[in-house]
Amino acid sequence: MSRKIDIHLTVNGRQHAHAADTRTTFADFLRDDLRLTGTHVGCEHGICGACTVIVDGEAVRSCLMLAPQADGATVVTIEGLSEPDGTLGPLQRAFRKHHALQCGFCTPGILTTAHALLTQEPDADETRIREVLSGNICRCTGYVTIIQAILEARESYRARSTTSAQP
Ligand code: FES
Ligand code: FES
């Protein structure tokens, strides 16, 4: 029998208070309840990475979380990776420039994974980027352009981390 409980969370800077079904995955909650359909659901078994979102700074599989587990969390989804003025963020711009997507199904999960990595480790080298991305399956691109795009976007993350580190 399904049951709903009230949860409070911040998603892409916006606060939400919502009754969440206790059996609903966080991925479905984002898509169906909050209408943030940029998060994609592929395998629903934690394998493909398409559903990756950032919860309290960590990249997580939203298909492996239940919605009530996000109570109190600060979440970033693919919709939160654009600039405050609505233009594309550095990863999005680089993916477009390098043609790093074809069908685009994997792209939200790859962008959120890369965003979490570069936010925590702006000096991540190609080996580290490949290691972290190994959990995201892309069936179209062969990864070469994806890596090129992330390496280019890394410069923006490095610049931001240097700026935020200044007194
Ligand atoms: S849908 Fe969550 S990892 Fe595939
Ligand atoms: S762009 Fe199609 S699965 Fe990655």
Automatic annotation (TrEMBL):
Query: Mind telling me which Gene3D superfamilies this protein's record contains?
Result: 3.10.20.30, [2Fe-2S]-binding domain
Q: Which Pfam families match?
A: Fer2 (PF00111), Fer2_2 (PF01799)
Top-level lineage group: Bacteria
> Which residue intervals define the domain 2Fe-2S ferredoxin-type in the entry?
5-81
Q: Which UniProt keywords apply?
A: 2Fe-2S, Iron, Iron-sulfur, Metal-binding, Oxidoreductase
The entry lists its GO molecular-function terms as:
2 iron, 2 sulfur cluster binding; metal ion binding; oxidoreductase activity
**InterPro entries this protein is in?**
2Fe-2S-bd, 2Fe-2S-bd_dom_sf, 2Fe-2S_ferredoxin-like_sf, 2Fe-2S_ferredoxin-type, 2Fe2S_fd_BS, Beta-grasp_dom_sf, Diverse_Oxidoreductases
Q: What PANTHER family does the record point to?
A: OXIDOREDUCTASE WITH IRON-SULFUR SUBUNIT, XANTHINE DEHYDROGENASE IRON-SULFUR-BINDING SUBUNIT XDHC-RELATED
Its name, as the record gives it, is (2Fe-2S)-binding protein
